[in-house]
Amino acid sequence: MNILTLETTCDETAAAIITDRLEAxxxxxxxxxxxxxxxxxxVPEIASRAHLERILPVIDEVLHRAGLSLDEIxxxxxxxxxxxAGSLLVGLVAAKTLCLVKGIPLVAVNHLQAHxxxxxxxxxxxxxxxxxxxxxxxxxxLYHCDDPLSFxxxxxxxxxxxxxxxxxxxxxLGLPYPGGPAIQRxxxxxxxxxxxxxxxxxxxxxxxxxxxxxxxxxxxYQIVGPGKTDFAKIKLDRRQVADLAAGFQEAVVDCLLGxxxxxxxxxxxxxxxxxxxxxxxxxxxxxxxxxxxQRNIQLHIAPLQLCTDNAxxxxxxxxxxxxxxxxxxxxxxxxxxxx
Length: 339
Ligand code: KG4
Ligand code: ZN
Fold this sequence. Notes:
Order of helices and strands: EEEHHEHEHEEEHHHHEHEH
Number of domains: 2
Shape: globular
Mean pLDDT: 95
Bound molecules: 5'-O-[(R)-(carboxyoxy)(hydroxy)phosphoryl]adenosine, zinc ion
Distance between the termini: 30 Å
């Protein structure tokens, strides 16, 4: 059985062909980073228009790479939640059209569950029940995942997502979009202790929530001075940029690590799965690996190519198909977080 999976929740137009044995026969990701770079973040209208131009060529390309024709596709899966409304619509309309024309089943994918499922794919064995940590440009949340399809929200950011904070701080430091990889690179030569930034909510043992907005402001005040916003006259040298990047990154990593460990303690689970764009961060991966080893936690972090948005993680559709969960053609998008 071959499933065509589509992913257009944010700013990547992606398609993959997944078999019912969870193998990825082909995968294509058309990144829009270059289109959004000069704005320092994703512009929703630009994203949806680019999806519209790219979705059909991306589907053609993935079929070509898999050596399959449309007639050999048995189901279409699409991420319909959460994400940007215009972007989600493009993927959903494409998926529904293919299902209607070919008379094949439609499967709905929750983008956040798919990020965690990337860990299951890479592990090639069951990773459930586990605690799931999703750290991306739009979300930072902890889930208790009993099985691939049941996700109970334990906590989430009360303001910015971690990736969003990376992107905004990168802009302050004069680094390019997307900010995560740029900050990681700059931080390599920086001293994480040169500046001491806050770790919001980290000491609150009763909460599994995150907050990155104050941390972002702390970086801004460090650069321009308290209460000021004007970056125009500020010229940071390479050392300052490296130290600020390293200090900020370490603060984010401390918060993510601390709350993930608290979630494991509270739930009594021994398996941690980590996915989403920020899970590509080398410092986070190293600190998680060290901590997991010390605490005897089984750690699964999505492989780098499956951290940022892709359609391979839409393989979670196989679980839904096995459970008999297909959709009618009146399926709608749901831009907000579905818990
Ligand atoms: O999961 P993703 O591709 O899209 C969303 O669903 O949001 O995540 C994109 C986010 C961006 O904010 C980007 O800066 C961040 O992931 N990111 C990183 C790294 N690579 C990507 N953040 C920190 N370190 C990285 N190496
Ligand atoms: Zn994502």
